[in-house]
């Protein structure tokens, strides 16, 4: 892996216990998918990392350097199918104190790769083929979900609740609208139009979300960036979630009730095909 300017064996990487990511979740992250040894949509992911850094008043990350590190790590680790994980924290500040260190400290910058096993790739394919189920949960996060912060406890608890109920994803409901998943953006097909919550401070503007909106518009669909009313789930034709790792995954039931006819629909199929063509060439 890569840690603070050096390539180090995973087992030997050390981060001080008083790193602010560990104590305060004072850090940001990104996840990039690697297809056939190539990082997909690397540039928008790194641009979002830089934006998150600015919002947390972290030093501006060196995006050219991180681009080089990405390619080098993929090469060194022989990643064919997998992900690259980036994390930047405000570094070590001892003794523990909430406010930023008085003297600037070096941020902790780490990049690591995770290979995906053929079984994991196949499981993703199966979910995209057959669809998944979801539950709804009340929004309990902060009002800056546009920042990709490592502070993910409500997301973790929501996903765990979904898992315990045999569902794949938990969808956050804010003021009666389904806004996003615990680790995905959500789209509905309502009266033929594709509806997804607008990019604002309440959701993460997913890189997959942005790509899918572009694809949908170029395929001739109407995309409305507005709230999906919870009550509309009973009358929408299709529902799907998007993310870097799940791509375009259909949701065929929510809270035990089928979406549309309970089968994967044509809009999802068209968007999956467009995504796949871009990702796999
Ligand atoms: N929303 C949340 C809360 C997420 O954690 C993620 C995935 N990191 C997404 C949306 C999707 O973002 P992306 O398409 O960039 O993976």
How does this structure look, described?
Keywords: Aminotransferase, Pyridoxal phosphate, Transferase. Belongs to the class-IV pyridoxal-phosphate-dependent aminotransferase family. GO terms for molecular function: D-alanine-2-oxoglutarate aminotransferase activity; pyridoxal phosphate binding. It is a single chain. This protein is an alpha+beta fold and 281 residues long. Helix content is 31%, strand content 28%. The chain has seven helices and 16 strands. The mean pLDDT is 97. The structure holds 4'-deoxy-4'-aminopyridoxal-5'-phosphate. 4'-deoxy-4'-aminopyridoxal-5'-phosphate (PMP) binds next to helix 6 and strand 14.
Give me some keywords for this one.
single chain; 281 residues; alpha+beta; D-amino Acid Aminotransferase, Chain A, domain 1; D-amino Acid Aminotransferase, Chain A, domain 2; globular; binds 4'-deoxy-4'-aminopyridoxal-5'-phosphate; aminotransferase; transferase; pyridoxal phosphate binding; D-alanine-2-oxoglutarate aminotransferase activity
């Amino acid at each position: 892996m890569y840690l603070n300017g050096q390539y180090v064996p995973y087992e030997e990487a050390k981060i001080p216990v008083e790193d602010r990511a560990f104590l305060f979740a004072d850090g940001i992250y990104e996840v990039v998918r690697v297809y056939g040894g190539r990082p997909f949509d690397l540039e928008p992911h790194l641009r979002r990392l830089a934006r998150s850094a600015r919002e947390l008043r972290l030093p501006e990350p060196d995006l050219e350097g991180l681009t080089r590190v990405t390619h080098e790590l993929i090469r060194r680790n022989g990643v064919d199918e997998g992900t690259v994980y980036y994390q930047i924290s405000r570094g070590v500040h001892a003794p523990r104190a909430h406010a930023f260190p008085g003297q600037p400290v070096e941020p902790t910058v780490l990049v690591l790769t995770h290979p995906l096993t053929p079984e994991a790739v196949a499981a993703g394919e199966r979910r995209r083929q057959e669809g998944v189920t979801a539950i709804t949960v009340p929004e309990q996060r902060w009002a800056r979900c546009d920042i990709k912060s490592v502070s993910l406890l409500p997301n973790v608890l929501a996903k765990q609740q979904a898992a315990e109920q045999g569902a794949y994803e938990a969808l956050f409901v804010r003021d009666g609208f389904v806004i996003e998943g615990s680790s995905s953006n959500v789209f509905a097909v309502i009266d033929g139009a594709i509806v997804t919550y607008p990019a604002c401070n309440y959701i993460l503007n997913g890189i997959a979300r942005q790509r899918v909106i572009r694809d949908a518009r170029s395929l001739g669909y109407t995309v409305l960036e507005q709230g999906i009313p919870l009550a509309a789930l009973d009358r929408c034709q299709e529902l799907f979630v998007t993310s870097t790792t799940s791509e375009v995954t259909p949701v065929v039931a929510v809270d035990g009730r089928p979406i549309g006819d309970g089968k994967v629909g044509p809009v999802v199929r068209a968007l999956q095909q467009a995504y796949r063509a871009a990702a796999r060439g």
